[in-house]
Specification:
globular, alpha+beta, about 20% strand, homodimer, 5 helices, three-stranded mixed sheet, DNA-binding, Arc Repressor Mutant, subunit A
DNA sequence: TGACACACGTTATAGCATAACGCAATTGAT
DNA sequence: ATCAATTGCGTTATGCTATAACGTGTGTCA
């Protein structure tokens, strides 16, 4: 009883652990570390970090979750449910950027074609082959800066 | 005998530990973790991570060193010696971006006004006050992609 | 049915970062 | 001159983040 659980939705079917981890992130209003997720899921039988990390790896691969490098933490993708930011599927919309409020922890996910384009141009000029691009702005959100 | 050592150069005078850490980074041809730096400096009397982290904190503050968030590692700033990427001094040139080769480890530092501008516009529109922006492209450099 | 792929669980360990203590030296105002 | 404030330093201990290595169960498919 270890295989992915089929769901009526689109998107890759998630296993039990993957669903649990995703749900926790999806309900959160701020990024969560793997260990915080682990603690939230102790009641569901989670005992070890690897259970979380393995689920996160898959969710990242599916494009359903993002990793915030400057925080060592994770957020659910903010895009409309079905079509998310993946690149492998052919329908991705390029690199995603994040604005992270250092006061309230809120994260805004956005995307800018022009930025993508400029970075892509630089890479092309330098013959650099990008695999993954990280853009994170840390600061104060409108509400907190007031 | 603990105070900064005066030097003939411009830029803030560095203490002994700060100089040692900076020299290690400056000579390296790839990013280094704090613990790798520590190991390189055992012969100079370094015994504990904090000795490295404290020096790094200052060097980051001076803008002489950058932290690569996606690597948990550090590099010496690639700009011409004197005027570096700081923001506090008034002569900074905005956000710096990094292209990191996942094969050879080489890091290229660059910056792009247009990208800065676009991200700044987004922030302005959202009333977000940026404190620090991270841009890191991971992939393969020209030499390694060949 | 047997090889394979994949998710899972567990234990142990590696790697990155900081807290909290106390001492030494410098600065600078009084 | 001296005292308070600041800054750098060294040490020990601890916490947080991430992965290695092992073995199990299950579903797929030739």
């Amino acid at each position: 009883m270890n295989a992915p659980i089929s769901t009526p939705t689109s998107a890759p079917a998630l296993t039990k652990n993957q669903s649990l981890v995703f749900d926790v992130l999806d309900r959160a209003d701020a990024p969560m570390s793997a260990y915080t997720i682990l603690d939230r899921l102790r009641d569901h039988g989670f005992r070890a970090p690897l259970q979380v990390y393995r689920a996160l790896d898959k969710l990242l691969e599916f494009g359903m979750v993002h990793r915030l490098e400057s925080l060592n933490a994770f957020v659910a993708c903010a895009h409309p449910e079905s079509e998310c930011c993946g690149k492998g599927h052919g329908h991705g919309h390029g690199t995603v950027a994040f604005a992270i409020c250092e006061s309230c922890g809120h994260v805004s996910e956005f995307h800018d074609h022009e930025v993508d384009h400029r970075l892509g141009d630089w890479a092309k000029a330098k013959n650099f082959k990008p695999a993954k691009t990280t853009i994170e702005i840390r600061g104060l959100c409108g509400a907190c800066a007031a």
